[in-house]
Amino acid sequence: MLLIPCPNCGPRDETEFHYGGQAHVPYPENPYELSDTEWSRYLFYRENPKGIFAERWVHSTGCRQWFNMLRDTVTYDIQAVYPMGVPRPDSSRAVTPDTGTASTAPDSTTTGSAGPSISTTSIQSSTAPEGATK
Questions:
Q1: Exposed, middle or buried, 63 (CB in 10 Å: 0-12/13-18/19+)?
Q2: pLDDT per position as a tens digit, 57-93
Q3: Which residues pair with 104 in a beta bridge?
């Protein structure tokens, strides 16, 4: 089971999240000018790499906020978590995030006066014991 670090709520079990597909897919500038083939390529054709992949996720049973994540599709290791609208970070410069803190943003379900940092966050992978599965 994955432990996903929500940028607003901290680390949570993967069952609280829903996958939203590939991140950073730009909407066509003039969708009405696209042929049926071009439109279908926008809707259905996505990358399927073996390795680091930028994905969209939503914390559906928590803060209900969307965020992006860099995840290795082979090992499931999460390299970085970052807000929507932020460019994809360089995965080689990943930094350990502050974990376990709830959002204190005015629009969150918690109270407080300061919002969460919107800086790029990541978590370091841990090695599982021999014979263990992720």
A1: buried
A2: 999 999 999 999 999 999 999 999 999 999 999 866 5
A3: none
Q: How far apart are CA 67 and CA 103, in angstroms?
A: 14
Both tokens assigned to 37: 């083939």
- What span, in angstroms and rounded, lies between the C-alpha atoms of 102 and 63? 9
| Contacts (Cβ under 8 Å, ≥6 apart) of 59 | 6, 8, 9, 12, 16, 17, 65, 67
- Asked whether the beta carbons of 20 and 57 are under 8 A apart, the reply is yes
Q: What beta strand segments (E) does the chain contain?
A: 3-6, 10-13, 18-22, 52-58, 66-72, 78-83
Phi (first) and psi of residue 111, to 5 degrees: -110, 160
Distance CA 56, CA 50 (A): 17
